[in-house]
Amino acid sequence: MAKQQKVKGKLEETAGKAKETVGRTVGNERMTAEGQAKKSKGAARQAKEKTKDVFKH
């Protein structure tokens, strides 16, 4: 399950980065902000799972 959450976090982070880039390219500030938020959410999910792994061992 933890590995699945890490993958989900990475996918979310990647999708956010792509959305942010597209938003900047077309000049859409809202899309850029949504991409940044999604990227941060994915990074936070990954950090949470890494922290869990540290305490498991």
Quantity of strands, as a count = 0
Structural class comes to mainly alpha
Low-confidence stretches: none
- Strand % is under 5%
- Which descriptor suits the 3D outline? elongated
Distance between the termini: 16 Å
Rg to the nearest angstrom?
13 Å
Largest sheet: none
Number of helices: 2
Which whole number gives the mean pLDDT?
91
- In helices, the fraction of residues equals over 70%
Q: Give the helices and strands as they follow along the chain.
A: HH
List keywords for this structure.
57 residues; mainly alpha; 2 helices; 0% strand
Structure in words:
The chain is mostly helical and 57 residues long. Helices cover 93% and strands 0% of the residues. It is built from 2 helices and no strands. The protein has helices at 2-26, 29-56. Helix 1 (2-26) packs antiparallel against helix 2 (29-56). The longest helix has 28 residues, at 29-56. The mean pLDDT is 91.
What's this, in brief?
The protein is mainly α and 57 residues long. Helices cover 93% and strands 0% of the residues.
SSE topology sketch:
Elements: H1 2-26, H2 29-56
